[in-house]
Amino acid sequence: GSYVTIPVLLLCCLPYMITIHNLRKNYVQKHRLFAQFESFDMDLVECANESDRNFVYAAITQLYGSKEAFTSYVKGPLREELLRPIAYSVGPERYALFTVSPIASMFLEFTIALWKGGAPPDVILLYAMSVMVPGIFFHRTAIRLVILLSDQFSEPWCSSICVDLLQTFLIFSVFLLYFLSGSALCLGAFFTNQWLLLLGLSILFAVAHFAVIWLHRKSNSRRLTSSA
Predict the structure, then answer these.
(1) Per residue in 212-222, pLDDT tens?
(2) Distance between start and end Cα atoms, the chain
(3) Most buried pick, 53, 142, 216, 220, via CB within 10 A?
(4) CB–CB of 183/206 below 8 Å?
């Protein structure tokens, strides 16, 4: 049985790996866009012919006073106006809810199974409060953690494709470790019937959730204002 289970588990992990790898590539493009604004130089702008260049320079001088003033505008207010929505966006919340729908459906299925099987109400409540609700919550945190790590480590460490894939695998491993350890703690609280442990886990998951959000916003804010 284990010889079949391991390949099946690896196959189930493949979509996560592909998603994380593509997410890293998207963040590479975002970082390059930031870098292009930071290094903008009017003297390096190319035109099809010299008359177009003279026309553009004349229009810029008339509107902004000088090329230097326009360059400062592009690197400052324009850069912040255009990149701020990109910097702080991690996707619509409905997409985040969609990503947790499979795990939520699984937990709900177990809860209904307990109810249909005639489990006592206190057991159903304990399962819902120790496994289902925290499980959905920390799965959402795990996804945010993946987004944060994919953003921070989007650039490949070297030109080797193997190393690039290893980088993606390491990010996935952090996600998997967080998710599995959280699941084990929740199940431990359920099977030992310890409400105090459940309270501690709830606080821990809440702190982890908001810490990841704060770290991501702090990172984006630093990147946005790095050359402002």
Answers:
(1) 777 777 776 66
(2) 59
(3) 142
(4) no
